[in-house]
């Protein structure tokens, strides 16, 4: 007893049903394309589960099907049916779709985490029993302190779970699989979001950290210097390849974002951009570029030459640098905040800065308004006060230049 997706003799997709010692073909009117087949096979799996569980309702799925007359009562009314449970749909149908490359690895992890919370409250609950009242109770449970039987989550986290992950699950059940109708999530009212203010490093703090990496952890000096003086997002830095960098022209192309060892498209459409580099940034990158650099080779790597893991770098090197310099702890992402705030303080043009950082003017006005000053300048203004790149260290009274430290040569530690 099951349901399968087949192609009929006209090239259209159809369901082939086997249940209650009966068989039938049910046409769909859809061409056999990968997208249509994926959609119908997902529905076929749900139908198969219902047949196996004894809850399959032919008329709900095929009200005008070939066997409809056999299942319709004398008055012509359809027999009521039941939707699958939340946990059955999520685990067997929805979550298996939400894996790379269909979604980003970080999003797949978020959905899996959310489902663990959802399952605690909605195990055995049908999709059509998810009501606004049930969601209100779920929100209260998530935000209630653990000592009172809740999960102790912050309201923002609860909102991400319910209005993000759970709502996405329900939307797919409605719009892709046709299992439910309506949107109970629309009735929920949430407190106004309070976005955390950017917490940039000051120029003095920036200089301390740059100098620390030069003195104590030189292998990661190029990464830190580039982060502070390009304003790139952490995932953009980690994913940067030598094919994205034109040192002769002094330009850098942002083409990808890399998290959890996975390359993805940049965060937004505006994030895909080409930027001019400060001369010192060009010099730093030129010194670490391998003699025979491959276009797919990573610009920033570990000391062993392996691809950089942003989270591991923060854990093993960044936090240690903050402690050593006495700089107040902040995320590595705050290097981007430092670039934007410094630009605004020095009077960089707002539109130019937004384009350079791959964001919107509205975002900068909303989050960095207190740093705005003037309208003139652009990239040259950012060079008004910055630490020297330290590419050539002078030794002795004669001022003889010392070559760049060997751990940088050709991207290998010696």
- Fourth-tier CATH superfamily name of the largest domain: Intergrase catalytic core
Oligomeric composition of the shown chains: single chain
Radius of gyration from CA coordinates: 29 Å
CATH class categorisation of the largest domain? Mainly Alpha
Question: Which band does the percent of strand residues land in?
Answer: 5-15%
- Major sheet summary line: 3 strands, antiparallel
Total number of β-strand segments?
10
Low-pLDDT segments? 74-80, 392-414
Describe the structure.
The chain is α+β, with helices and mostly antiparallel strands. The chain folds into 3 domains: 2-71, no CATH class; 86-187; 203-411, Intergrase catalytic core (hpI Integrase, Chain A), CATH 1.10.443.10. Helix content is 43%, strand content 11%. The protein contains 16 helices and 10 strands. It has helices spanning 34-53, 58-61, 68-71, 86-97, 105-122, 132-143, 155-175, 203-216, 221-230, 234-238, 279-288, 310-325, 334-345, 350-357, 361-368, 379-382, and strands at residues 2-7, 12-19, 22-31, 245-246, 251-254, 257-259, 262-264, 273-276, 393-395, 400-402. Strands 1-2-3 form a 3-stranded antiparallel β-sheet, covered by helices on one side. A 3-stranded antiparallel β-sheet has the order 4-5-8. Strands 6-7 form a two-stranded antiparallel ribbon. Helix 14 (350-357) crosses helix 15. The protein is elongated, with a radius of gyration of 29 Å.
């Amino acid at each position: 007893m099951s349901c399968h997706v087949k192609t009929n003799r006209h090239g259209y997709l159809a369901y082939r049903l086997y249940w209650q010692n009966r068989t039938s073909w049910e046409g769909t009117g859809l061409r056999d394309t990968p997208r249509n087949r994926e959609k119908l096979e997902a529905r076929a799996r749900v139908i198969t589960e219902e047949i196996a569980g004894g809850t399959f309702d032919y008329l709900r799925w095929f009200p005008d099907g070939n066997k409809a007359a056999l299942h319709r009562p004398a008055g012509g009314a359809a027999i009521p049916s039941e939707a699958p449970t939340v946990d059955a749909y999520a685990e067997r149908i929805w979550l298996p779709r939400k894996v790379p490359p269909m979604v980003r690895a970080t999003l797949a992890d978020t959905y899996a985490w959310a489902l663990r919370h959802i399952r605690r409250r909605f195990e055995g609950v049908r999709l059509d029993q998810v009501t606004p009242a049930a969601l209100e109770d779920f929100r209260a449970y998530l935000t209630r302190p653990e000592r009172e039987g809740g999960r102790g989550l912050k309201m923002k986290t609860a909102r991400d779970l319910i209005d993000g992950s759970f709502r996405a699950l329900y939307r797919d059940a409605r719009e892709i699989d046709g299992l439910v109708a309506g949107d109970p999530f629309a009735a929920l009212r949430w407190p106004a979001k309070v976005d955390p203010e950017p917490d940039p490093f000051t120029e003095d703090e920036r200089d301390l950290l740059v100098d620390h990496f030069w003195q104590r952890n030189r292998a990661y000096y190029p990464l830190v210097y580039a982060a502070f003086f390009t304003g790139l997002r952490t995932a953009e830095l980690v994913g940067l390849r030598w094919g994205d960098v034109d040192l002769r022209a002094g330009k850098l192309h942002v083409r990808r974002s890399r998290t959890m060892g996975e390359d993805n498209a940049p965060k937004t459409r505006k994030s895909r951009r080409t930027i001019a580099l400060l001369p010192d940034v060009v010099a730093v990158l030129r010194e670490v570029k391998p003699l025979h650099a491959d276009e797919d080779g990573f610009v920033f790597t570990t000391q062993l030459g392996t691809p950089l893991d942003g989270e591991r770098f923060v854990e093993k090197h960044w936090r240690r640098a903050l402690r050593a310099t006495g700089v107040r702890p902040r995320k590595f992402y705050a290097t981007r905040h430092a670039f934007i705030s410094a630009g605004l303080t020095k009077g960089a043009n707002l539109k130019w800065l937004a384009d350079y950082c791959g964001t919107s003017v509205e975002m900068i006005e909303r989050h960095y308004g207190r740093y705005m000053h003037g309208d003139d300048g652009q990239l040259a203004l950012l060079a008004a006060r910055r630490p020297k790149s330290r590419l050539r260290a002078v030794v002795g009274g004669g001022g003889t230049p010392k070559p760049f430290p060997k751990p940088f040569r050709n991207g290998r530690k010696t």
